[in-house]
Amino acid sequence: MDVQEIIRQQVTGYPVVLYMKGSPKFPQCGFSANAARILNALGVTEYFSVDVLQKPEIRQGIKDYANWPTIPQLYIHGEFIGGSDIMTEMYQSGELQKLLKA
Amino acid sequence: MVTPESIEHSIEQGMNTVYLSVDGDGRHFEAVVVSGEFAGKSRVQRHQRVYQTLGERMREEVHALSIKTYTPQEWESRRKS
């Protein structure tokens, strides 16, 4: 199975998926830490996270998958939502809360 | 080392902006981009547009770039508020 197919199965197989550097408990980059912090603040505790530092092929593949050159990347119900900046904006505006409830 | 000026230059060359500022310390950068091209575009599309101007630099040189995007109208109303 190629990387794009693995990613497709991950993002459609779980309601909320976060590709990040490190783990939610031990993020390895400020932007990933911010993304995990936002999900935590929204009470999202059960989500699928992928540490791209442990998976070099996913680290590269995920950038192509969403045509998005940076990490973290958040997916909700298979849809690419954005990175750390967009998550922050949507958290502040209340949009992210709505998406997660849907 | 990557300078804020060089990032600013790439964005400026790659798209139409009405206001643009890039700050950074060589590792982490923050860009504010105001452009009419953002009208009617989603947040993801707006960021993709900015990333596009940086092309391969995003993969190789620039590791941490935070971006805020506004249309000229959004920028105006933000200044007034």
Can you lay out the helices and strands and say which pair or pack?
The complex is a heterodimer of chains A (about 100) and B (about 80).
Chain A: H1 3-13, E1 16-20, H2 30-41, E2 48-51, H3 56-65, E3 73-76, E4 79-82, H4 84-93, H5 95-101
Parallel strand pairs in A: 1-2
Antiparallel strand pairs in A: 1-3, 3-4
Chain B: H1 4-14, E1 19-24, E2 28-34, H2 43-54, H3 56-60, E3 64-70, H4 72-80
Parallel strand pairs in B: 2-3
Antiparallel strand pairs in B: 1-2
Features:
heterodimer; A: 102 residues; alpha+beta; Glutaredoxin; four-stranded mixed sheet; 4 strands; globular; B: 81 residues; GMP Synthetase, Chain A, domain 3; 4 helices
- Quote the average pLDDT of chain B: 93
* Strand order, largest beta sheet of chain A: 2-1-3-4
The strand line-up of the biggest sheet of chain B is 1-2-3
Number of helices of chain B: 4
What's the tally of helices of chain A?
Answer: 5
* CATH topology name of chain B: GMP Synthetase, Chain A, domain 3
Question: What would the principal axes of the Cα set say about the shape of chain A?
Answer: globular
Radius of gyration of chain A: 12 Å
The low-confidence parts of chain A are: none
How far the N terminus sits from the C terminus of chain B, by CA atoms, comes to 37 Å
Provide the domain count of chain B: 1
* Oligomer designation: heterodimer
CATH topology call of chain A: Glutaredoxin
CATH architecture of chain B: 2-Layer Sandwich
| Coarse morphology of chain B | globular
Beta-strand share of residues of chain B: 15-25%
Q: Please give the CATH class of chain A.
A: Alpha Beta
Could you tell me the mean pLDDT of chain A?
96
Helix content of chain A: 40-55%
End-to-end CA span of chain A: 31 Å
> Biggest interface pair, residues each?
A-B, 17 and 14 residues
